[in-house]
Amino acid sequence: MQRVIRFAIAALAALGGPAAAETLTVYTYDSFTSEWGPGPAVEQAFEADCGCDLEFVGVDDGVAILSRLRLEGARTRADIVLGLDMNLVAEARATGLLAPHGLDLSGLSVPLPADMLDELFVPYDWGYFAFVYDSELLPVPPASLRALVDDSDAEILIQDPRTSTPGLGLLLWLREVYGDEAAAAWHRLRPRIVTVTSGWSEAYGLFLEGEAPMVLSYTTSPAYHMISEGEDRYQAASFAEGHYLQVEVAAKVATTDQPDLADRFLAFVLSPGFQDVIPTTNWMYPVVTPAAGLPDAFAALVTPERALLMAPDTVAQSRGAWIDEWLVAMSR
Fold this sequence. Notes:
The longest helix has 20 residues, at 312-331. Strands 1, 2, 3, 4, 5, 6, 7, 8, 9, 10, 11 and 12 form a twelve-stranded mixed β-sheet that branches. 38% of the residues lie in helices and 20% in strands. By secondary structure, it is of the alpha/beta class.
């Protein structure tokens, strides 16, 4: 029997062994790949569909994905980037490193102007930035962004706009509300910023540890606590000026050596196997509403009266200058 086994092994080795499964490499952010994020369910469902190996490579946050793609250029291992948002698409397009997806996006349930949907980026979820607060530590939160900046004494946790899409979203939110007075607003807010983290996960973890009563997050974040913990202690403050919209996107890397598999994954992104897990793993709104609808807890969330969103080209032209302005305000 041992001779038969050794012969079989030798024969397989001579033939090159069994064919290895194709691998699709996806650059995304850490919270997507975490055990409580969408990554594990998405990986299991897609691998069952494609018979391939789906490999996630996590970085701190969405802005870091673009930075890594730029740094690696045509040598990148990525076949797909997943986790950019509409504030980064103009800069991502300008790299020349992305390829058209070939999908029809006309039927998506996403609050974007039609002209912001294009051939390179596939939206997969959306939500609104918000300051989530601990109602036991802060029973009455600020009712507007101006109140947070000018009238509140509440300490906050935020993310760095150089590495984080929420951090960049807050930078643009203040710019939308304060215009050219944004730098002065940052200067007034700075004494109450407990810390600036590189990504969302670290900031939210510190918030849950009680480091500050407010953290930059999403209007949908309280749904996690309501559904997973049966807890309504954590709520999102509703701001009178409106809330900045985030739409997250995926894209195919032009240098991929798995173009067909990459196309298959982008189509899968819009399927129930991906979309149905978004509300209760990424805690965002899906772009294709699940057949069973959204969880009941989503009906209790803050619904902004106004969605704020800058044109991607405007962000691309001014992001560097606005970040420099923020750095100066933070250092005073």
